[in-house]
Amino acid sequence: MFTCMDSRMLPTRFTQSKVGDMFVVRNAGNMVPDAQNYGFSSEVSVTTEPAALELAVKRGGIRHIIVCGHSDCKAMNLLYGLHQCPKNFDSSSPMDHWVRSNGYRTMKRWGF
User: Required cofactors, per record (predicted)?
Assistant: First the structure.
């Protein structure tokens, strides 16, 4: 399961699962980076999400992946705000880079 790092998100509670029942990856905005946004060279930042997918699916035999968001997500609010007003992008902000590099493509696909 990919879910947000927001402390209000308690995956084991709303799935009624126990420790060891599922792999959980938490990040800002419950994003799964596009394959073009990660790599193995020094030119591209390597993130843990692709490694988690490989561990769960290829090596762990997991057949179902859940991407679970929530209401009032600060990362999604930031993404939408940057989409509405790109000049507010802060090039020194890791969070701005994260949501822009991993969220813009999806917004375009959905017609935003």
Answer: Zn(2+)
Binding site feature residues for Zn(2+): 4, 6, 70, 73
Burial of 98 (0-12, 13-18, 19+ CB in 10 A): buried
Six-digit token pair at 4? 């947000």
Say which CATH architecture domain 2-110 belongs to.
3-Layer(aba) Sandwich (3.40)
pLDDT band at 87 (very low <50, low <70, confident <90, very high): very high
Any bridge partners for residue 4, and if so which? 27
Q: Model-level pTM?
A: 0.82
**Domain locations in the chain?**
2-110
Angle in degrees, 0-180, between the axes of helices 74-84 and 94-109, rounded to the nearest 10 = 70
